[in-house]
Design goal:
By secondary structure, the chain is mainly beta. 15% of the residues lie in helices and 40% in strands.
Length: 274
């Protein structure tokens, strides 16, 4: 049996999207990693499997290219929003989010951020707005959970940080029991941030939607920017808005940016055993 897929990307963060709403597809860590392999598989940063949902229009499962299933992916949410069209509700492990495809891209309501140390989660209690920890020159980060855990370092020059070396050290530090996404950010203008991300289970990435959301929220909490922030990633820009809301610090995060289809294809079910 041949299984169709669609190759999509958001600012160069690329996905293999498989629609399994009508024909169920068994997925394992091994199978996800094999499909994501850029030499022997289709190749992608994340594998996305769409399934029926009892609480939303679709259930989106997200597998990093190491095969591990994760809670959220902002760029993948935009890609799925583009694929489905219109206004949609998407179920993820982090909860139900909303997307709306329009002429200017796809807007995704990413929900409300979480700041309590045990909801990041961290291994022990500490202030998550100015964490009293550091790794070489990267110190005093902010921790935010936007469906998945992020730590954000504000530095003079994000491009000067050796993130390929420091990223995996911080990702796998015992302080983060579920590992963590590592962001280095620089203010480059009023309400404008340059961002690079080491993504948990995926490595350096051209774009990370949840990283952009977490970094914008961190900058707003530290009063470095206003409540709408342009985040420039290696793959291109995203606009992140965190308006005031019912919570003391803010409401839901709104992420807006592009998504696109690269090509379509198929593979034999037996080529990548579950």
């Amino acid at each position: 049996m041949r299984i169709p897929f669609r190759k999509m990307h958001g600012l160069g963060n690329d996905f293999v999207v498989i629609d399994a709403r009508e024909t169920p597809l068994a997925m394992s860590d091994r199978r996800a990693a094999a499909l994501a392999d850029r030499r022997t598989g289709v190749g992608c940063d994340q594998l996305i499997v769409l399934e029926p949902s009892a609480v939303a229009d679709v259930r989106m499962r997200i597998f990093n290219n190491d095969g591990g299933e994760v809670e959220a992916c902002g760029n993948a949410s935009r890609a799925v929003g583009l694929l489905l069209g219109g206004e949609r509700r998407i179920e993820t492990l982090a909860g139900v989010i909303r997307s709306e495809a329009g002429a200017d891209g796809v807007a995704v309501d990413m929900g409300t951020p979480r700041f309590d140390w045990n909801r990041i989660p961290l291994a022990y209690a500490m202030d998550t707005l100015t964490m009293p920890v550091g790794w070489e020159d990267l110190t005093d980060p902010v921790a935010v959970n936007v469906g998945n855990p992020h730590v954000i370092f504000f530095v003079p020059d994000a491009d000067a940080v050796d993130l390929a070396r420091l990223g995996p050290l911080i990702e796998n530090d015992p302080l983060f029991p579920e590992r963590v996404n590592v962001n280095v950010a620089s203010l480059i203008g009023p309400d404008r941030i340059r961002l690079r991300v080491w993504e948990r289970g995926a490595g350096l990435t051209r774009a990370c939607g949840t990283g952009a959301c977490a970094t914008a929220v961190a900058a707003i909490r530290r009063k470095l920017t206003g409540r709408t922030v342009a985040v420039e990633l290696p793959g291109g820009p995203l606009t992140i808005a965190w308006p005031e809301g019912e919570q003391p610090e803010g409401g839901s995060i709104l992420m807006t940016g592009p998504a696109a289809t690269s090509f379509e294809g198929s593979f034999e079910d037996t080529d990548f055993p579950a």
